[in-house]
Amino acid sequence: MTVDHLFVAESMGVSFVGKAVLKSASIWARPGDVTVLLGRNGSGKTTLFKAALGLVVRDFGTVRFNGKAYLKPNLPVLAAQGLFYLPDQGLLSRRRTLSWHLAVLRQRFPEGFRGELPSGLAAGPLLKKTIWKMSGGEERRAELALAWARQPACLLADEPLAGIAPKDQEIVGSILRALADGGCAVVLTGHDVRPLMSIADQVVWMAAGTTHGLGSPDDARAHEQFRREYLGPGF
To answer: Which residues contact 44 (CB under 8 A, 6 or more apart)?
Structure first.
């Protein structure tokens, strides 16, 4: 981790009912890069995000964002500084439309709001559609429309490709890549390894409550233990 990292959650420790979930886990994000955090179910990827954002109590660890250290990270404070958190579910109000969400976002963050959405997102038909009527892929695209309009400095997206059709995975992946190419520092989690690795610049592996920076996707594929314990044969 170097000074050019915009967001760093370092040496995070979290325990639930006396059991350590995170022992010393770190994640970092650099402008223009997509960092992919991989690990088995229950390894603590979501917990690491939530600890870094102050959504769960951590035992120890530090957070730095945009040159400032946070002893007690707080999501609303970080959001005001340009961080956008995309949870695996529950971001959108089920009985509201995408247009309504965009209007609220514009009112909350008028500076830098980007009203024109990329054509590749295919968001036009979704604008007047209530969220509960959307498919899983449409809902994820609606969430990414909010992220795009916000123009965040840093995006943390938990399982953005989970449970959606391959075509929607391709759309979501291309928008996430476009956000990074525009200067956003992007961190993703997930289990859809091939599409995630195809857009990644850096791979971080979570196992046994800690994290290991593996470098580029090619470096990760060449890492013998990662291949043996996570990727499996034939990858």
So the answer is: 14, 21, 22, 25, 206, 209
